[in-house]
Design goal:
364 residues, alpha/beta, six-stranded mixed beta sheet, 18% strand
């Protein structure tokens, strides 16, 4: 039944994993949820260039991001490719170089979290080069959005890893956070710290007046999504999520740039692929810099969404603060959530992180 745990799921012996990897109705393989290990105060997090280069003008953003992360209680280091002036075409380095550095971070037991510096156009070039076995051996949270959506979706499909569609160093911690009201910064800082260091469910995410009910209703399911164009691109690769992953899921998406008609087209692709027939709810982020969605323009984003959904009776919550409009509410991919569109609530019903590694463990 929609919103209930699958009774046929198998249990895992790994305490970092949730139960199950089999769809009880179809028997199709589903990712076995792999939770990263919860962080401790003083743990090392690394800011890495996982896609685009670092412009000189954004160097202060990285420095400000370090301050934010240190205030949360973490040690912070920059990965070598995160260097002003280093670039290959539109990227911080070649896809192979970025993959090599990422794999090194995944294998390094001292590194407990990886935070993308920024988005870009590179992740598609190294999806096949990621050391998935290193992720399974020592799961770590990877934070980022935009192009990093591809990593979250593909690593969830390949390893069941919970990915964090959340703020990055340059446009997030060192950018949007700096101009947010002090009370909002403090709220987000506490939220991120609880999410990364705790092993209990967060519960309701903080609501703001921007949230809109586009179609009422309630749903529970796995949170799956990212930037809408990257969702569509991921599904075009051999690492695509099996359609069964969308059964009962709460689909979240956002977009930046391009045309309103492009968003409509991406939604149509998801309709044709069968994704929209499987989900139990939808959460839409605040759009940014999309031509055709200016105030007073027609159609509105909500009109486009409801047009493509047609008579699919699922709740839709719109204009939620995640993605390029920033600062971001964190959206952990794969975690079970509760959605009540009419009451404008979105709740994380289970922890995103697994038990900490015991002190003195050789994997530390």
């Amino acid at each position: 039944m929609l919103g209930e745990e699958d009774p046929g799921r198998r249990k895992s012996n790994d305490p970092a994993k949730a139960t199950g990897d089999t769809d009880a109705m179809t028997g199709a393989a589903r990712p076995q949820l792999l939770r990263p290990r919860a962080l401790r105060p003083g743990d090392l997090v690394v800011i890495a260039a996982l896609s685009g280069p670092l412009p000189a003008a954004c160097e202060p953003n990285v420095e400000r991001a370090v301050v934010v992360l240190e205030r949360m209680g973490f040690r912070v280091r920059r990965a070598p490719l995160l260097e002003v002036g280093r670039r290959h075409w539109w990227s911080a380095a070649t896809p192979a170089e970025i993959a090599n550095e990422l794999n090194g971070l995944l294998r390094d037991p001292e590194v407990r979290a990886i935070i993308a510096s920024d988005g870009g156009q590179t992740a598609l070039g190294y999806l096949d080069l990621i050391d998935v076995e290193a992720i399974r051996a020592d799961p770590k949270p990877i934070l980022g959005y935009s192009d990093i959506s591809l990593l979250h979706l593909v690593l969830y499909a390949r390893a069941g890893l919970v990915g964090f569609h959340a703020d990055m160093a340059v446009p997030g911690f060192g950018g949007h956070w700096q101009s947010a009201p002090a009370a909002r910064r403090a709220e987000l800082e506490k939220l991120y710290s609880r999410l990364l260091t705790g092993t209990a469910a967060i519960g309701a995410l903080p609501v703001s007046p921007s949230w809109e009910c586009w179609r009422p209703g309630r749903a529970e399911g796995r949170l799956i999504g990212g930037v809408i164009n990257r969702i569509v691109l991921a599904q075009a690769t051999r690492f695509a999520l099996p359609l069964e992953c969308f059964d009962g899921a709460v689909l979240f998406w956002e977009e930046m740039g391009g045309l309103a008609s492009h968003v409509w087209s991406y939604l149509q692709v998801m309709r044709h692929s069968g994704i929209l027939d499987r989900i139990s709810g939808m959460v839409v982020g605040v759009p940014r810099e999309i031509s055709g969605l200016e105030p007073g323009a027609s159609p509105t984003l909500s009109e486009m969404v409801l047009d493509v959904l047609g008579d699919r009776d699922i709740p839709v919550l719109g204009n939620v603060e995640f993605g390029h409009a920033g600062p971001n509410l964190p959206m952990p991919v794969g975690i079970r959530v509760g959605l009540d569109a009419q009451q404008r609530t979105l709740s994380l019903l289970e922890p995103a992180m697994g038990p900490r590694i015991p002190q003195g463990s050789p994997t530390r």
